[in-house]
Design goal:
Blueprint: H1 12-22, E1 24-27, H2 33-46, E2 54-59, E3 67-71, H3 78-81, H4 83-89, H5 92-102, E4 107-118, E5 126-129, E6 136-141, E7 152-154, H6 159-171, E8 192-193, E9 201-204, E10 210-212, E11 221-230, H7 243-248
Antiparallel strand pairs: 1-9, 2-3, 3-4, 4-11, 5-10, 6-9, 6-11, 7-8, 7-10
């Protein structure tokens, strides 16, 4: 069994405390081996089969031979087409953890499940970043996963930095999509490569800095993750006259305030963190 300072018992108060401190919590043995077998079968089907509960099937954006799918466990066909996957991400215990974490704010509990199958590739699965859209993620590897399989990596404690970086950008009148989120490599602190047993549950705040590792020749990585969003939180588009739309307009005085609303940084030490759309590496 793998154990980390952010490993926890299945206890709501302890889970909340570990996510608050580290941005991440590890719950060993969340799924039994019988269910894992069924989930592995549904995993293969969800990437290719046609079902109205699956709303996207694509190549992985970076992992050249990798596949991805997006699935709604709440769609009316979900329970019939993918019963184990749907039941897993409709799980009441998971919901309790998510509600406790965001309380008193309302949530859209696992409104999307993102499924990825990564294959050997020289590039990391994803670069160091934090997510632009706010969420809490429930992550499960369907096979035992080590560094060789491209294990997920996370910098414990950096979720506070990502949280304030995102808030700063938005209050300066930037859009969610344009948040500079691919972290300057010099600013990555104390990364941990999170090796897991199949069926362990990882819950993380993606405001923390994270990336996917490198899948070595002859290896693969099979991942399920449920995305829980705070209800009504800004996404990529801003509707005309919404609060986000006003913040982005010239009426936002922060746009004119220069260094009255920022700290000064010399040109030679500037933060090199860039937005994903500008990242050509
Ligand atoms: O695939 C990975 O290891 C990184 C995943 C990631 O960036 C995310 O789930 O937000
Ligand atoms: Fe991410």
């Amino acid at each position: 069994m793998f154990s980390y300072k952010f490993t926890s018992q299945n206890n709501i108060a302890e889970i909340r405390k570990k996510i608050r401190i580290y941005g991440i919590v590890h719950l060993p043995h969340f799924i039994n081996s019988e269910t894992l077998k069924i989930l592995n079968g549904e995993f293969d089907r969800v990437l290719t089969a046609s079902s109205k509960a699956v709303f996207s099937q694509k190549k992985h954006p970076i992992n050249e031979k990798g596949r991805t799918a997006r699935f709604s466990p709440w769609h009316k066909d979900a329970l019939t087409d993918f019963p184990a996957l749907s039941n897993l991400f409709r799980n009441d215990r998971m919901r309790e953890m998510a509600e406790d974490y965001f309380s008193p704010h309302k949530i859209d509990f696992n409104d999307e499940v993102f499924i990825t199958h990564e294959k050997p590739c020289e590039k990391p699965i994803l670069p160091w970043h934090f997510d632009r859209v706010q969420s809490l993620k429930f992550w499960i590897n369907l096979t035992d996963t080590t560094k060789e399989n491209g294990a997920f990596e996370y910098c414990p404690g950096t979720h506070w930095e990502g949280h304030y970086r995102a808030g700063f950008h938005l209050s300066q009148g930037g859009a969610v999509e344009n948040i500079p989120n691919d972290i300057d490599p010099d600013l990555v602190r104390n990364p941990v490569s999170i090796e897991l047993k199949a069926g362990d549950l990882l819950i993380f705040d993606p405001d923390g800095f994270h990336r996917g590792g490198i899948v070595q020749p002859g290896q693969e990585r099979r991942v399920l993750r449920g995305h829980t969003h705070p209800k009504g939180q800004r996404r990529y588009g801003d509707k005309p006259l919404s609060s986000g739309w006003w913040l982005r307009s010239f009426l936002n005085l922060n746009k004119w305030a220069g260094h009255a609303s920022t700290r000064i940084l010399g040109d030679k030490i500037q933060d090199q963190t860039i937005n994903r759309n500008q990242n050509k590496s």
